[in-house]
Specification:
By secondary structure, the protein is α+β, with helices and mostly antiparallel strands. It is built from eleven helices and four strands; from the N terminus they run αααααααααααββββ. A four-stranded antiparallel sheet has the order 1-2-3-4, with no helix packed on it. A hairpin with a 7-residue loop joins strand 3 and strand 4. The N and C termini lie far apart (90 Å). Its main location: membrane.
Length: 345
């Protein structure tokens, strides 16, 4: 009778592992395709791999390792109720999950660093550059803090000697502090790295369709930001004292993997404008072209030595400085008696 009662109180033998495999793996495949398209588009005579490309490659390697740890944990029973997991598998599940968490934070952090470093190439304003460097510093400190704390306090889990429930690395206050810090820094970075380029792109002398396309590609990082909302919800509602902790961990685990994939896609999307433009042309849409701007005279400058502006002879010459309304294009025209010459700055 006691055995029957114990059996009756067991939770159903359900398995959320196939759900994780069926959603996370296909999304990882899409992520790899987008990443490969980005790298392929950069391997041309006109382009070359830059620092952001190498950083996103590091993020992709970390994501691949994360998927490997996830598959290993699911094979050992992660996704089932704790009561239906073999005790011998609990240690391996714990060490694999720790590998997932550590590589996952590295994935999302390095992908956001790649976005920020890419933006450094498109803005010359000192204020924005300072803000971007602050974002990069926050992401680096976030990654280092998380990884160091896990390596120091979870060394017994890494060694396969204890499970999460009995390890110091999952104390409630520490989990909240690390996760809130991670989510907060990531959300702040996404908002800054989305808002800044919108102001820059909209001032360019390009067609509205092209500017809208670039803004949509850049704003795709907000999808990863939105994934942080359910992560916070499941973190707040997680029962740290439950005997079925691995089962209750699955929802937060799922949203973390989705967020990592989306931020890599968002980091690669803006650099796919060229391939997307070629696809749109095949559907009959007009090619993207620069819109000419009307220059207006805004001042005059006199050089004491003509050699300063390219004239071979000596003497003063008067030049007119013209600019468009938004100051994006500047031209200098010789207004002296000699035939006018225009040069772009």
């Amino acid at each position: 009778m006691a055995v029957n009662n114990a059996t009756a109180t067991l939770p159903p033998n359900e398995n959320q592992g196939p759900m994780l495999i069926g959603t996370v793996i296909p999304l990882f495949g899409l992520t790899f395709i987008v990443y490969a398209a980005r790298i392929w588009s950069r391997l041309s005579p006109r382009c070359a791999l830059t620092v952001p490309d190498y950083i996103i490659t590091v993020a992709m390697i970390a994501k691949t390792m994360c998927i490997g740890f996830m598959i290993a944990a699911i094979q050992d029973g992660f996704g089932r109720h704790n009561a239906h997991i073999e005790p011998a598998n609990m240690l391996s599940i714990s060490s694999n999950l720790l590998g997932v968490f550590m590589t996952g934070v590295a994935t999302s952090g390095t992908a956001r660093i790649s976005i920020a470093s890419l933006l450094l190439r498109f803005t010359m304003e000192r204020t924005w550059r300072i803000v971007i460097w602050i974002v990069i510093a926050l992401q680096v400190s976030n990654i280092l803090t998380y990884e160091i704390v896990k390596l120091v306090q979870c060394r017994l889990v890494i060694a396969g000697q204890v499970v999460f429930k009995k390890s110091q690395c999952v104390r409630k206050t520490q989990v909240w502090a690390l996760n809130y810090m991670n989510v907060g820094i990531c959300m702040l970075s996404d908002l800054i790295c989305t808002a800044m380029p919108i102001f820059v792109v909209w001032r360019l002398s390009r067609s509205v369709i092209e500017k809208s396309l670039v803004i949509v590609l850049i704003a795709s990082a907000l999808i990863a930001t939105a994934c942080g909302i359910p992560k916070i919800y499941h973190l707040v509602t997680y029962d740290f004292g439950s005997d079925d902790g691995l089962w209750h961990l699955v929802p937060e685990f799922f949203w973390c993997r989705i967020e990592e994939a989306m931020i890599i896609i968002a980091a690669c999307a803006p650099l796919l404008k060229g391939p997307i433009e070629r696809c749109l042309r095949r559907f009959g849409l007009p090619p993207f072209e620069s819109q000419p701007r009307t220059l207006s005279r805004i001042g005059t400058v006199v050089f004491a030595n003509n050699a300063e502006v390219g004239w071979p002879d000596e003497g003063q010459r008067q030049w007119s400085i013209s600019s468009d309304v938004e100051g994006m294009t500047v031209a200098m025209t010789d207004t002296s008696e000699r035939e006018g010459t225009k040069s772009g700055l």
